[in-house]
Amino acid sequence: MSGALLWAATAWVRGAWATGVLLRVGADGRWAEVRSGVAQPPPGATVLPGPAMPALANAHSHAFQRAFVGLAERRDGPHDDFWSWRDRMYGVALRITPEQLHAVARHLYAELLAGGWSHVVEFHYLHHAPDGQAYADEATMARALAQAAQDVGIGLTILPVLYERAGFAQPALRDDQRRFAADTERVLRLRDAVRGWALPLVGAGVAVHSLRAARPASIHALALALHSDPGPIHVHVAEQTAEVEDCMAASGRRPVQWLVDEGLLDARWQLVHATHTGPGEIAAVAATGAGVVLCPGTEANLGDGVCDLPAWLASTTPLALGTDSHATRTASEELRWLEYGQRLRLRRRNVAADAALPPAAQPSTAARLFERVLAGGAAAAGLGAAGLRTGARADLLVLDEADPALVGMPASHRLDAWVFAAPQRAILQAWVAGHCRFEAGAPHDTGPAFAAAMAALHGR
Fold this sequence. Notes:
Blueprint lengths: L4 E9 L2 E10 L5 E5 L10 E2 L4 E2 L2 E6 L20 H14 L2 H17 L2 E8 L15 H13 L2 E8 L21 H14 L4 E3 L1 E3 L7 H10 L7 E5 L3 H11 L3 H7 L7 E5 L5 H10 L2 E4 L1 H6 L7 H6 L4 E3 L9 H16 L18 H17 L14 E4 L14 H7 L6 E6 L2 E5 L6 H13 L2
Parallel strand pairs: 1-4, 6-7, 7-8, 8-9, 8-10, 10-11, 11-12, 12-13, 13-14
Antiparallel strand pairs: 1-2, 2-3, 5-15, 15-16, 16-17
Helix pairs in contact: 2-3, 2-14
């Protein structure tokens, strides 16, 4: 694809709609040139069939949980919350085979491409066989994920997860967590295995499941081993109030404050959820350069709570989005949930828009959120630059202006409509590293294998 030329009549470039945008793809799959004001497509250029905009990196995914979506929406006890959902989800985790994981992930990744994501970060803790024994190739489950991503052409960052215990006061894993066990050495071996495959668009970092699931000494040992490694480091933190309370009881500190106080955080770290985080902790995180990954669709589905988005936006903290358990799978819906949760919490509108007055500030809620999570998602995935700019990976989306939610929309409000007018099929194409990997209406074959995996897991 070296030297390939694309031309868009309009494209979202550096936070605004530009006209006549020429995009040249380099041999490395990154933008070698992005130039506005080119009135006509030059000879040989591929003319994009609608407005072009950057694709987003999905910064938090548990692909196997796609096989559980829609199956936990009935109460089977007097009280239902995250913890009861988790116990039921473990039933799928204990049964799924590598072949079924490949089928589920392949279907999911195709959905994510169609939903506006060009890269996905897998928080990967499903390592072992159903009996808890290691596979002969301990990276078997990671291979299933990588193959699924290769099949559909989406980018992938795999994060093998440090997972040692069931809770702060529980020294070992529960029996229904037996597939998750991984100490520091195993995590590093799995990371190195993924990198050793040298697959296109597939990279690796590491993760700590949570403070409750990893011993402090192990977290420090992992951080020490990573002292010069540039890859991303993710951790679930402060998702549930019970987790915060348990951390206080065990350490005398809230979980985010513990990470700050222990001197662990830097720009490689990504705090996933960070829902129950106070103003002092937000300021402390910002000072370290660490990022935060918000998953509003899953956080709503699980009843986690709502973060203090205005405080995170007011800080310098990089922000990213993830679909986590995949209750929702489109980028526009995650952005919409992020804002709507705040509107319900604060009883105000356009909470995420810049409070300063235009033109000095960004009055568009969608634009401010999109630009923030565009940059933050690329950092969380270990991708570097993001967007339609020289040096960023050549990823983009093409919107369908004939979609009922976008038709007739003034160009100045196109991004707002994409997020808040709830289009259903607004994406015509998704490009990854200079290749068109999704086209609306084109046939794809992920459904039958996914249906077979679901039937095997759940019965018809």
